Amino acid sequence: AAHLWGFRRMRAAPWCIVALLLAVAAPTARPDVAGAQEVSETLQSEIDMFEALSLQDPKNVSVRYSLGMLYQLASKPKEVCDNLHAAYVAAEGGAPPELLFHLANNLKAIGENEAAINFYSLAISLQPTGPVNWVLISISLDFIGQSQMAVRGFQTVLRLGPTERIVSWVEIYMLSALAKSNQGRRAVWRYRNLIDFPALPPRPASEWSSPPPVTGHVLDAPSGSAVHLDLRANRAVWHDSFASASRSFWGSWEHA
Questions:
Q1: Cα–Cα distance, 191 to 93 (Å, whole number)
Q2: Is the pLDDT of residue 209 over 70?
Q3: Which of 33, 69, 81, 174 has an alpha carbon 20 to 30 Å from 244's alpha carbon atom?
Q4: How far apart are CA 7 and CA 11, in angstroms?
Q5: 88 pLDDT higher than 50
Q6: pLDDT tens-digit series, residues 215-250
Q7: pTM for the full predicted model
Q8: If you average pLDDT over residues 152-168, what whole number do you get?
Q9: Which residues pair with 229 in a beta bridge?
Q10: CA-to-CA distance for 175 and 228, rounded, in angstroms?
Q11: How far apart are CA 100 and CA 240, in angstroms?
Q12: Residue 249, pLDDT score
C-alpha cells in the first residue's frame, strides 16, 4: 500500500519513477555483477511486483509506465506496448514525450509502423525540435511506402542541426528514400556531394587501371533490396539484394 501511495503522489511525472527504476535496475544487468540467471530472476521479481501494483490500480500512469519499461529491459516489445498504451490512455492527454517515444519505438519493433507513426507524431508535437523523433518517424514512413514524406522528414532533421552521428544516419536513409520516390538523380547528386567526388573526366572506362570510387550501394531495409548509385552513368539502379548490386557493378566494369 505504501508503494502504491507513493506512485499516486508522483502520477503527474511518471518519467521520474522510470528514471529511478532504470538507474536501480541497470547495475544488476551488468555481466560482471550478476550471472544471467540472477539478472533474469531479479528482473522478473520487479515485473511481478509491478504487475501486482497494476492490478490494484490499473489506471495508475506511473505503474503502467514503469512496468512497460521493465518489459523493455526484458526485450518483450508487445508487453511494452500494452502497458505504455495503457499509461497513455490513463494520462488523458498528459503523457510525456518520453512515453510516446518508447511506445512508438516498440510498436515499430513489432511491425506496427502506422501506429508508430501516430505516436512519433504526438511526441513531435510536444518536442518539435527533437531530431530523433523526426528520424524515426521518417524511417517508419519509408517502411510503409511513403518515401516522399520520409524525404521531407529527413530534410527537417537536417534543418534542426543534429549531431554528426544523426546526420550520417539521415544521409544514408535519404539516399534510399530519394531513389524509391523516383528521384534517382537527386540521390546520385547527394551521394556525389557526400563523398566529395568531382565530375569524372571524359574518357572511357577502359582507360582506367582500376575502378575509381564512382559507385555506392545502399541497402533498403524494408524490402531487403539495394540501390546502386552509379556516378559514371548518373543514375540509380535497383537490385534484389546488396550482393546482386555489387556483382552488377563489377560485371559492368569488367565489360566496359
A1: 42
A2: no
A3: 174
A4: 6
A5: yes
A6: 676 777 677 777 777 776 777 777 776 666 566 554
A7: 0.69
A8: 89
A9: 216, 236
A10: 10
A11: 35
A12: 52
Smallest CA-to-CA distance from 126 within 96, 148, 106, 103 is with 96
Give how far the C-alpha of residue 135 lies from the chain's centroid of Cα atoms, to the nearest Å. Answer: 7
Answer for the pair 64, 86: CB distance below 8 angstroms, yes or no. Answer: yes
The string of DSSP codes covering the chain is -HHHHHHHHTTT-HHHHHHHHHHHHGGGGSTTTS-HHHHHHHHHHHHHHHHHHHHH-TT-HHHHHHHHHHHHHTT-HHHHHHHHHHHHHHHTT---HHHHHHHHHHHHHTT-HHHHHHHHHHHHHH-TT-HHHHHHHHHHHHHTT-HHHHHHHHHHHHHT---HHHHHHHHHHHHHHHHHTT-HHHHHHHHHHHTTPPPPPSS-GGG-SS--S-EEEEE-TTTS-EEEEETTTTEEEEESSHHHHHHHHHHHHHT-
Q: Buried b / exposed e across 205-226, counting CB within 10 Å, b at 16+? A: eeeeeeeeebbbbbebeeeebb
Average pLDDT of span 127-139: 91
The span from the CA of 64 to the CA of 102, in Å, is 13
Percent of the chain scoring above 70 in pLDDT? 68
Dist. CA 207–CA 213, nearest whole Å: 15
Q: What amino acid is encoded at 196 in this protein?
A: D
